[in-house]
Amino acid sequence: MSERLEAHFYLTDGKPEAFNISMYNFPYTIVKKNDRWQNHPANKMEMTSGLVVAVSIAIGEPVV
Q1: Distances (CA, A) of 19 to 5, 14, 22, 60
Q2: pLDDT (tens place) for every residue of the chain, 64 residues total
């Protein structure tokens, strides 16, 4: 059985090397390191790598 999952987020700031989102009332900063998007070490909550990729695609950032 497969089910469709959804995540609702808001882009709050975007720069070439980082972007900030708010998802379910938690702020996240995603940074580009070695041409890959990843969680900023200061994030209180950590997003899984698959969700980081999905969010970066959704906001129109290329994924390497």
Answers
A1: 23, 4, 10, 11
A2: 688 878 899 999 998 899 999 999 999 999 999 889 999 999 999 999 999 999 999 998 766 5
